[in-house]
TrEMBL record:
Family under the similarity heading: Belongs to the binding-protein-dependent transport system permease family. LivHM subfamily.
Name of the molecule in the record: High-affinity branched-chain amino acid transport system permease protein LivH
Keyword field: Amino-acid transport, Cell membrane, Membrane, Transmembrane, Transmembrane helix, Transport
Pfam families with a match to the protein in the record: BPD_transp_2
GO molecular function, one term: transmembrane transporter activity
Recorded topology in the membrane: Multi-pass membrane protein
Membrane-spanning intervals of the chain: 16-35, 42-64, 102-123, 190-216, 237-258, 270-295, 307-328
Length: 343
């Protein structure tokens, strides 16, 4: 039972990332009808927003410390972060250590700007083009963004630690009635899951209960009729592209302490996220979230030693096997709608 609970927690952790990226993908496809293969790159850029803010907050300059001497008796030069000078050593160090949560606020305007620039500068020209054209141009854009990140940040993963308050592990077993230290799980992974649920709930609430969201949902169903009512639906769809970019970016920011950011992490998640979207049903937001968590849990159980002893390597292909089975039995996915991606 302890092993089962642990794998469920691992699955929810992985599923959170899948669900957030798939949610953004589905927002773009559902509103604009665009298959955006650059969406994984937005996840990567979000992670590097956390890296960038960590470096900015850690900027320092050298001062001469007369109280410390080297072996020749000369005063030592030491690096002092600007945060320490501006806010004092304790508060300044706390700001540096909390760079990842602070990157949430730092990344939102950046991701929104990138999303708007991407939609207005490139994607809008492919709305009425075949999906194959959309895939090729957005995949090419993803490669360009990946190489830009590689040029400025290098090819090696960059450790981006969580705040010290959340670097330990939580005794989950004791919470649910098991013996102490039987189910230990990292704090930050639990925070990532909780954060994902908040973002997902926020997106659904925005679409369901705001006038803007209602107009967008109406435009998703019948764009021409909404346009005839005098509503600038194109402007609203551009904002939705920016929101989708922010969702992907926030997923990347909070994932940085779990998996050190590297230039190819967007591609690593992109293929799996498209599988999640297809399994959930193209254009279905609830389907994307459901499939994300479902496939995350399945992949987690397939990674158990007992399973790998019987089926070596099954954890590498289980998601694709599940996708094949679901699409053979339900061609539109779990919650797909009639007419979406069907000629």
């Amino acid at each position: 039972m302890e092993a089962i609970i642990l794998q469920i927690l691992n699955g929810l952790d992985k599923g959170s990332a899948y669900a957030l990226i798939a949610l953004g993908l589905t927002l773009i496809f559902g509103t604009l009808g665009v298959v955006n293969f650059a969406h994984g790159a937005l996840f990567m850029i979000g992670a590097f927003c956390a890296v960038t803010l960590q470096r900015l907050l850690g900027l320092s300059h050298q001062i001469v410390d007369e109280t410390r001497k080297d072996f020749l008796g000369n005063p030592l030069k030491i690096d002092v972060p600007y945060m320490h000078e501006w806010f004092g050593p304790e508060i300044g160090q706390s700001i540096i250590e909390w760079s990842v949560p602070l990157a949430i606020l730092f990344s939102i305007p950046i991701m929104a700007f990138i999303g708007i620039a991407m939609e207005r500068g490139l994607v809008k020209h492919f709305y009425k083009r075949p999906h194959a054209d959309q895939i090729l141009v957005t995949f090419g854009l993803a490669i360009v963004l990946q190489e830009i990140i590689k040029y400025f940040y290098g090819a090696n993963p960059i450790p981006t630690p969580a705040p010290p308050a959340f670097t330990g592990s939580f005794d989950f077993g004791a919470l649910v009635g098991f013996d102490a230290n039987t189910i230990i799980y990292p704090y930050w992974r639990l925070i990532y899951f909780s954060f994902s649920m908040i973002v997902i709930a926020g997106v659904f609430a925005f679409l369901q209960f705001t006038t803007f969201g209602m107009v967008v949902r109406a435009g998703m169903a019948d764009r021409e009729t909404v346009g005839l009512l005098g509503i600038n639906i194109d402007k609203r769809f551009t904002i939705m592209f920016a929101i989708a970019a922010c969702v992907a970016g926030l997923a990347g920011v909070m994932y940085a302490p779990i998996n050190s950011p590297n230039y190819h992490m967007g591609m690593d998640f992109l293929v799996l996220s498209f599988v999640v979207v297809v399994v959930g049903g193209m254009g279905s937001l609830p389907g994307a979230v459901l499939a994300g968590f479902l496939l995350g849990i399945v992949e987690s159980f397939a990674s158990m030693t007992q399973i790998l002893d019987i089926f070596p390597g099954i954890n590498q292909i289980i998601i694709y096997l599940i996708a094949i089975i679901i699409l053979l039995t339900r061609p539109r996915g779990l919650m797909g709608r009639k007419g979406v991606m069907e000629e």
